[in-house]
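TEACHING EXERCISE
Course module: macromolecular assemblies
Task: Read the component lines below, then compare them to the predicted structure of the full complex.
Student: A.B.
Group: 4
Components provided:
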Amino acid sequence: MKRIADSTVRRLSAYLRFLEDFEGRGLATISSDELARRGGTTSAQVRKDLSFFGSFGKRGLGYSVPELAGRLREILGLGRQWKVIIIGAGKIGAALVAYRGFRQRGFRILAAYDSNPDKIGKPLEGLPVRDILQLEKDVQKEPPDIAVVTVPSESAQTVVDRVVRAGIKAILNFAPTQLQVPPDVTVKTVNMAMELEGLSFALTNRD
Amino acid sequence: MKRIADSTVRRLSAYLRFLEDFEGRGLATISSDELARRGGTTSAQVRKDLSFFGSFGKRGLGYSVPELAGRLREILGLGRQWKVIIIGAGKIGAALVAYRGFRQRGFRILAAYDSNPDKIGKPLEGLPVRDILQLEKDVQKEPPDIAVVTVPSESAQTVVDRVVRAGIKAILNFAPTQLQVPPDVTVKTVNMAMELEGLSFALTNRD
DNA sequence: TTTAATTTGTGAATGAATTCACAAAGCCTC
DNA sequence: GAGGCTTTGTGAATTCATTCACAAATTAAA
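Instructor-supplied answer key:
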């Protein structure tokens, strides 16, 4: 399959969100133009994005809301459940465990891990917190698909090396660090410092 | 000034992070090649990125670490202090308040706001939590530069309208929603659902 | 002082993503 | 069922971003 750009996948994700909204309101069809207006893009962009995967619309009419939503879920791999572990039982970890969006979209959090003896054993928002030393054994018993890394920058690379060695192929990283991983492992980084500096730049360099 | 791409600004932010690391280790100069290796990019990219703002290097030698760090701070607008408010005193808000990176980079959090009477008045990680109804008056007294929005999706647009009306020009949004704002307001969105779906897509569509 | 070795800064070339523009296809009304 | 109105799907054109490639500067060594 032709390589799909990251930006395209992000937009598909946004389209799905709007479609779910429309689904909830019982609307039957939607045009690329309407979808574009909601997503801050153009109708041509919407149609091009979808065209990489097939043609799902009806000319003159638009797209069936439930059908397109279903197709997007399929494309994005949301038809199944993904198993997630969280490494780092701090404040960010706690916020993530409490975040409803995870479960809603089929991401099931199995456990949190930490190296701090004060944290191990004390549930985080109801989720068991285990010793990071236990990781490999647990992974063998019930392999997670995704590891969310919420440890401080200094330990991020070490933790990631360990996660990769255990065979996990997808990482969501909250440490403001560039991580080194083998090419078959996918990393997405959420970098708050970078977003803030982006705002700082925008505020500083306005016309 | 020529428009600078978002991707460029994000890389500048990354370069600054590496430079600070080098600064801490007392290194005097660095080449574009070294900077590129750290940032997972190419030396030509590094030089092109910097060239939008001037020429800071010495041929044959590289860049002075402290000088380039200073220039980047200047470019990114980090020479000053930015005032930040947080709207939504939930788990994400709490994680942000506790996050050291904010203060380290000159972002001072003034207060948090919420509409829930159970939360108003009870400090969040030491930060005062005020009634959202008080927002306009507070903004007049001490105008914040940036509003961080951590309320649920349903209320995000309403809250943002209010923030915009109060005159704030930069928003960091944690709600998984596309926000409508006037063109002079900059929004950066951190969308965890989108990142997770990106990972789901990557796991689903591998060779 | 010359020569060899680095490394920047930047036009030119390439590659990637977005937008244009229009034929093809479906609906609706008369 | 003809004509008008919509809206898709998609090559072609365009715009934007990255990479190439090399002259110009600088250092270090001989």
